[in-house]
Amino acid sequence: IVRAFTQVINMNMAFYWGTSRWSPMEIMEAYSVARQFNLIPPICEQAEYHLFQRDKVEIHLPEIFSKIGIGTMTWSPLACGLLSGKYDDGVPLHSRASLKGYAWLKDKILNEEGRKQQGKLRELALIASKLDCTLAQLAIAWCLKNDNVHCVLLGASSVEQLYENLNSVQVVPKLNPTILTDIDRILGNKPVRHVSKGETLQR
Fold first, then answer.
1. What are the NADP-dependent oxidoreductase domain coordinates in residue numbering (predicted)?
2. Does the pLDDT of residue 202 top 60, yes or no?
3. Contact between residue 122 and residue 186 where contact means Cβ atoms under 8 Å apart
């Protein structure tokens, strides 16, 4: 893979290459292969990251990012629409979760864990209201606030939705430590890094 992408870049068919949904071990292996054979290493990892999916970006990737200097492009900041608030009262008729082939998403919304998540989103909607933004904008801004996130990939089904999502950048400065603490309290899922014996954490 590393050799193939090096050839693609050398042929001026691309400027850079990156990985998507690779484990930290796989990324390090690609980097090591690139150094060993004088090839071009990946510059970023594309990882899922949103309010309900945090471990990989917040715990598993930062260490290798600091070691080899690659960045993060995160995707699904609204978790396939779960974080938009539109599923608060179930599954709307013309939503993605109602479409053929998306039964898995509908089940995810309607199961017990999904109902708990919707309850948390109602609390987050109150924070969004205080910040004069939508729940979706809060969710995207929260992703952008992470120093380890260099790019957030957006999806939109209309021009209006695209503008709404882009305006999330105006919410980022409003996410002060107090707001972030309130969000973590509501979510109750802040990842904790477990330190192995003989290892020390850098402050």
1. 16-184
2. no
3. no
